Amino acid sequence: MNHETQLWHITVTVGGEPQDPSKTHAALLRLLAERPFIHSVRYGEGRAEVRYWEESQEMVDAASLALRLWNEHKTSADLPDWRIVGLEVVDRETHQLREVQVPTDIGHVVPRRF
Fold it and tell me: What mean pLDDT is predicted for residues 54-59?
C-alpha cells in the first residue's frame, strides 16, 4: 500500500440564492486571506468555483477536507449561504494532462492518454 503524500487538484463549486457580486467578491477575498493556498476563484451572482491543491495520502482524505472548506469559513469570511453543488478531486498527473491538452477550437475533440 502506498503511504506517500500526493498532490490533489481540488475544485469546489458552491451555489445558491443570487447575492450582490461586490459582497461576494469581498467575502472571497477574505477567504483567500484565510486560505492562501487557493489559486483561483470564479464567481457570479449565484455560484462560485474555488480551485486549489491539497496534500494527502488518499483521494478520499483530500475530498473530505474539500467538502468542509466552504462551511468552515462561512462565518469568518462572511461567505454567502451557499451549499456545495460540485466537487472534483484529481491527481496531479490528471490535472496536468488536462491543462496541456486543452482544445483550441470549440467543438474540437482531442484524445487523451489516461
Answer: 96
Distance separating alpha carbons of residues 77 and 8, to the nearest angstrom: 24
Predicted pLDDT of residue 24: 94
Task: Compute CA distances 69 → 33, 83, 88, 106, 108, whole Å.
Answer: 14, 11, 13, 33, 35
| CB-side neighbour CA atoms (13 Å) of 114 | 8
How deeply is 67 buried, as exposed, middle or buried, from its count of CB atoms within 10 A (0-12, 13-18, 19+)?
middle
Residue range 8-32: average pLDDT? 95
- Count the residues in the chain: 114
In order, the DSSP letters of 42-88 are EE-SSEEEEEEEEEESSHHHHHHHHHHHHHHHTTTTT--S-EEEEEE
What pTM was estimated for this model as a whole? Answer: 0.83
